[in-house]
Design brief:
The protein has 510 residues and is of the alpha+beta class. Helices cover 27% and strands 24% of the residues. The chain contains twelve helices and 28 strands. Helix 3 crosses helix 6, helix 6 crosses helix 10 and helix 7 crosses helix 10. The longest helix has 23 residues. The radius of gyration is 25 Å and the shape is globular.
């Protein structure tokens, strides 16, 4: 057996003594939850805690948090959870395209700022639960304005359904779905409904409905997959597999629990937030998932953000023919797209496991904790520690000294840096558990029987992963490279199997 080497690179980085990092720009985010997040009046909170909201902010709102300090103590609940004051950077309810640069500028400014402490000034009147805040780092995303006159199509449609999908992306209906940040998933659905009503005289209702389902499946396949793979063979095969999972949920086993309203409801299946979390409220605000990325004016080198839109258009075109056959074709089509596979296994494949995106764990490091929110103190100075991992050091009184445990995800490994950003500060012990958190934590998130010369990361495996059978699927696709700029090179690639560290399709899991 080959010896395993741990490639979790460890650095100890000194921190300048000028101060501590300023609180970052943070974003309100509660996965698949209510749109509105309550905040509270400071005076009321001191008396009754988080019982009567003073108002709400919408998910996706970005703000700069601070600690309300009164009587020499920061404002927390009985468990030590900080309720923080805030200054709004971007209000997602009222955001316009100008919000993108405002967010980026605030993010850059805060990243380079050091301070003595994280105290609020006296003008702060409201506080919010810090556990709803995440340092996401991604700016709100808007399409460029739709031009008054759309130039002639650069890409020629490939069949009727593609023609309809492209017409929708170039329509005012699609454009309206992305004019505001909030509720884009619902807005896209309403835009398609309006487009279908307006186009009944041009195309049949059956074709319009199929095109809608194709558009939703293609959006999900592109953004659920690894965007950085672009048009390489593995990325194209990955998108076909995602489309297969949607097909099977909509044709082989239609379940309301998985978003299927009736057989053939690929729209409902592919946009079910609980199944494909890229459709979550906040994620649609920053990803481009609901954008009109096939617009003719956004293709080619001369358009705004041309590289991104051109790449998305190329990924769409690369998988279009296969995905149409997967959704609407026969069993023979499935066998042709995924050769040398068992047809019953193909038709039962509804789940897959993207290990790099799953929960990180660090069995080679003791006393590592993820802090959703805590206060650290040094004399009369208080710091907010939120949405971050720390290395817990020696105990002092009712708290612990600590250092930041910073994880950078490289393609093949997690690179870890331990940084003493808060020298002399002690984190509230009520927020430290020191419990074992490495259950189901395995190299790369694959079964223990797999062998690697080196181990670059560990991931937690979901409970369902062992209830089915892992599939290794073959695809024969035209590889166009990660930047989608190469010539077509026909390749046979495999995705999955027991030891694939990137994606593992599973058949028979529920």
């Amino acid at each position: 057996m080959k010896k395993l080497f741990i490639l979790l690179t460890l650095f100890i980085t000194p921190t300048a003594s000028a101060g501590i990092p300023a609180t970052p720009v943070m974003t309100l985010y509660r996965f698949n939850s209510a749109l509105d997040v309550p905040y509270y009046d400071v005076a009321s909170f001191r008396k009754t805690g988080p019982s009567v909201p003073a108002g709400t902010l919408a998910q996706g709102t970005s703000l700069v948090p601070c600690l309300v300090v009164s009587g020499g103590q920061p404002l927390t609940d009985s468990q030590g959870i900080p309720y923080v004051g805030f200054q709004v950077v971007v209000d997602s309810r009222t955001a316009t395209p100008a919000a993108t640069e405002r967010f980026k500028n605030a993010l850059k400014e805060r990243q380079s700022l050091t301070v003595a402490n994280h105290h609020c000034d006296a003008s702060v009147q409201y506080v919010i639960d810090v556990r709803n805040l995440y340092a996401m780092g991604k700016a709100p995303s808007f399409d460029p304005p739709l031009p008054a006159k759309v130039r002639s199509a650069v890409n020629h449609p490939s069949g009727e359904l593609d023609q309809i999908v492209r017409a929708f992306h170039n329509s005012t209906q699609c454009d309206s779905a992305n004019q505001r940040l909030l509720e884009r998933r619902t807005a896209l659905q309403e835009a398609w409904n309006r487009f279908i009503r307006d186009q009944q005289s041009r195309w049949s209702n059956d074709s319009l409905q199929r095109a809608k389902h194709l558009d939703y499946t293609m959006r999900t396949a592109i953004f659920e997959g690894h965007l950085e793979r672009g048009c390489n063979a593995y990325g194209a095969c990955e998108r076909n597999i995602i489309a297969l999972s949607i097909r099977n949920r909509g044709r082989e086993a239609c379940s309301k629990r998985q978003g299927c309203g009736a057989p053939g409801d690929f729209q409902g299946v592919s946009s079910a937030v609980s199944q494909y979390n890229i459709w979550d409220e906040y994620l649609t605000q920053i990803s481009g998932l609901t954008s009109c990325f096939l617009r003719d004016d956004l293709a080619g080198e001369g358009s705004a953000s041309s590289q991104n839109y051109s790449k998305l258009q190329s990924m769409y075109a690369q998988n279009l023919a296969d995905v149409q056959r997967i959704l609407f074709g026969s069993d023979q089509d499935l066998m042709a797209i995924f050769p040398n596979s068992s047809l019953p296994d193909l038709k039962k494949m509804k789940h897959y496991y993207h290990a790099p995106a799953m929960g990180k764990c660090f069995p080679q490091h003791d006393r590592v904790e993820f802090i959703s929110g805590a206060v650290a103190s040094k004399g009369n100075d208080f710091a907010l520690i939120a949405n971050t991992r720390i290395q817990v050091d020696q105990q002092k009184g009712s708290g612990y000294f600590f250092r930041n445990f910073v994880v950078k995800e490289d393609p093949a490994r997690d690179v870890i840096t331990i940084v003493d950003n808060y020298p002399g500060f002690v984190v509230d012990g009520r927020r430290i558990s020191l419990k074992e958190t490495t259950s189901r934590c395995v190299p790369y998130g694959v079964p223990s029987g797999c062998r690697f010369d080196q181990i670059g990361r560990y991931r937690k495996t979901p409970s369902w992963i062992n209830s089915g059978k892992p599939l290794e699927l073959l695809c024969r696709v035209a590889d166009r490279g990660e930047q989608c700029q190469g010539g077509d090179v026909l390749k046979t690639t495999k995705v999955g199997g027991v030891c694939d560290t990137e994606m593992r399709p599973v058949t028979g899991a529920e």
